[in-house]
Amino acid sequence: MSDSGISRRRLIQATVGITVLLAAATDGQVLLTANANANDDKANAERLVVHEADTLRQMVKRLFPYRNLSEEPYRLVVNQVRNEKSVADVATLLREGVGVLDSGVTGKQWLALSKAQQIEVMKRIETSAFFQLMLNTSIHSLHANREVWHLIGYPGSSVEYGGYINRGFNDIDWLPEGSVN
Amino acid sequence: MAHFDLTDSSAVVVIGSGAGGGTLSNELAQKGVKVVCLEAGPRLSLADIVNNEGTMFKKMSWLDPRKGTGQLHPQFPSWSCKTVGGTTMHWEGQCPRLQEHELMAQTTYGEVADTSFIDWPLGMQELSSFYAKAEDKMGVAGTNGRPFLPGNNNYKVMAAGARKIGYQDVDTQHMAINSTVRDNRPSCQQIGFCNSGCAIGAKWSTLYTEVPKAEATGNFELRAESMVVRIHHDAHGRVTGVDYYDKGGVLRHQKARAVCVAGNAIETARLLLNSHSDLFPGGLANSSNQVGRNYMTHFTICVISLMPKPVNFHRGTQMAGVVRDEMRHDLSRGFWGGYSINPVPFPPEFLAAHMQHGGWGEELTASLQQYDHLAGLMMMGEDPPQATNRITLDPEVTDQRGMPIPVVHYSDHPNTTKMKAHALRQGKAIHSALGATKSYEITSLPATHNLGTARMSERVNDGVCNKWGQTHDIKNLFVSDGSLFSTSGSANPTLTIVALAIRQAEFIKSEIEKGNI
Questions:
Q1: d(CA A23, CA A30)
Q2: Chain A, nearest residue to B309 by Cα
Q3: Which stretches within B91-123 are classed as H helix?
Q4: Which of A172, B20, B197, B217 is deepest in the core (most CB within 10 A)?
């Protein structure tokens, strides 16, 4: 899967080049045919990119399945991981990682698996560099995200509101009577 | 602020501006002793302090390369600071005194295999008046008639659970955080984020107490971003000055009347070892071969629990509280020495990474989703000196200045393993007593208490310094930080470091007057 991804992209570039040559040298019929092939391949490439993003986003959701959280924080994790500079060739790592997920159950893409099957496949690759990158990026990106903070009840900085001296630092009211002092 | 010429040898050079170096500098300057303080880190102001752990971690932490071996993180063996104020920027303000029996560890604990226990060369009688001075200087809440800080929700959970399982010695702890307006600094506003630097200066830090007070005397010059790499000596073995890289990266030599090293236990040992010479081939002050050895930390392990109703543990002073019942020495528990139990909160990012190390999925996420229901405890206990736990110089790897990086080796003693298991059990019992539905253990925090690498000893073969922090080998070379600790005790070390620095300043002043240094 991952290897064919590379060769497909190379094929697209090659096809585009040939199209130009053919356009200069032959009649319109050939040109049209070649262009149609290029468009098909371009669409295929886009489908691959979308598939990869969808798979990665779903993976982040399986890592940290927050209830009632919008798509946006999960989408940001995928953006962030794709721009990760600490990995030499992050694009290949992610593409191959998605390939490994998709080959977890024969004949079925990972996204098409049941929740239990998806988690099962993830557990099998927990120690891989791909999984660890996804986990670490999810830990840091999701949990520094204001929307997540708001959802779980963490407000972040307090100094600009005068701290909690008048905002409930000691407002707990369910402890056993007389147990604190 | 004074300015001293590089060739001026009248000043005492203090290396480091934290609890030890910052305090010693000010105490000396107040007594009319001239001081040049060389601090590796930059000088922040209160305006640089924001309520964001990640941002402040990058601004304040010691991030120069280090190597950890044994059970330590290989790249980040210890969490210390590189900033004016040192770890007094990062600390939480807890100020327990060491206990009398902990100062006599060898006598108290007897022969324990694979340890190098000694008694401190000074007892509580010699130390207690300096504790009182330190508490007064730092405005410690609950001492000298000052009110205790109020307890926050996380403290109240700890106190209620602790009492329910039979603990009795529980309060909001002696804290070097203003409980009332004092020393031109405000009282605590329960902001939280104490360990990311106090944005209003209610917590005692040398950055805005000792350092400006020293500057006001006209006897003191602070040079920030100045990293000392070598201490020099003359043919008689007396130290004469230091080499340091200044703010611009230029190598300078500052002459000195005496040198006081307070770089935090890892850097202090590293500097002494790196200052080896023909006269001192094993490093300065190392005739005992004890420099860098007996490296101690306090284990810091945490219990994070999901409580039945909201706690909001992020609100308020982070660690104002203590249960002292387990700090006693009582062999019936199966280990010697003791530990304290303290309240602690953490932000979501930290919890996601450490609450269940390597964890992910529905159960962990469900707990994180109830962030407002979480309560936290940190247990820390006595760490025995072991000669094999030590700082050495890496034989191959150097830092950006060409100075060998420190290798920090540490492994738990079997006693510590037993004590940790006990502490985790008790921590969980405190929360369970109030109906906690789930508890997580955090057992892999990097140490922040670094102790013992140039320890004080009665006998010259047992340690590096005498009871004044003066090295056994070199009269005008002193150690002035947690490296001095003969043993670790179970208490947070800052108050003791400050007390020892006040005491050392009196000694240095009198030695100067006697013409000895």
A1: 8
A2: A174
A3: 100-103, 105-109
A4: B20
Buried b (16+ CB within 10 A) or exposed e, B149-174: bbbbbbbbbbbbbbbbeebeebbbbb
- What is the distance between the terminal CA atoms of chain A, rounded to a whole angstrom? 65
| The dihedral sign for the CA sequence B269, B272, B274, B280 | negative
Nearest to B444 by CA among B300, B298, B297, B338: B300
* Contact criterion met (CB < 8 Å) for B152 and A163: no
Helix (H, G, I), strand (E, B) or coil at B222: strand
Task: Give CA–CA dist B364/B352, Å, rounded.
Answer: 8
Range list of H helices, B139-232: 153-164, 210-216
Report pLDDT digits (tens) over A82-134: 999 999 999 999 999 999 999 998 899 999 999 999 999 999 999 999 999 99
pLDDT digits (tens, 9 = 90+) for A40-71: 788 888 888 899 999 999 999 999 999 999 99
CB atoms within 10 A of CB B214: 29
- Tokens standing for B231? 């201490």
Residues of chain A with Cβ-Cβ distance to B365 below 8 Å are: 64-66
CA B25 – CA B213 distance, rounded (Å): 10
The distance of B320 to chain A (nearest Cα, Å) reads 12
Q: How far is A181 from chain B (nearest CA, A)?
A: 8
Complex confidence, ipTM: 0.94
| Residues B119-165: tens digit of each pLDDT | 999 999 999 999 999 999 999 999 999 999 999 999 999 999 999 99
Nearest residue, CB atoms, A179 vs list B54, B163, B362: B163
Query: Minimal Cα–Cα distance from B164 to chain A, Å?
Result: 8
Candidates B153, B158, B350, B360, partner chain A, best to mutate (most A CBs within 10 A):
B360
Which residues, 6 or more positions from B273, have their beta carbon under 8 angstroms from its beta carbon? B282, B283, B286, B291, B292, B391, B392, B393
Q: Please report, for residues A154, A169, B156, the alpha-carbon distance to residue A158 in angstroms, rounded to integers and kept in the order given.
A: 11, 11, 21
CA dist B98 and B494 (Å) reads: 11
Q: Which candidate from A135, A142, A174 shows the least CB-CB separation from B309?
A: A174
Residues B214, B211: Cα–Cα separation, whole Å: 5
Alpha-carbon separation of residue B356 from A14, A151, B302, B305, B437 (angstroms): 49, 21, 12, 12, 16
In the structure encoding, which two tokens stand for residue B273, read together? 């070892």
Percent helix, strand, coil in chain B, to 5, is: 30, 20, 50
Nearest Cα of chain A lies from the Cα of B274 at a distance, in angstroms, of: 33
Q: What is the 3-state secondary structure (H, E, C) of B3-70?
A: CCCCCCCCCEEEECCCHHHHHHHHHHHHCCCCEEEECCCCCCCHHHCCCCHHHHHHHHECCCCCEEEE
Distance CA A18, CA A26 (A): 11
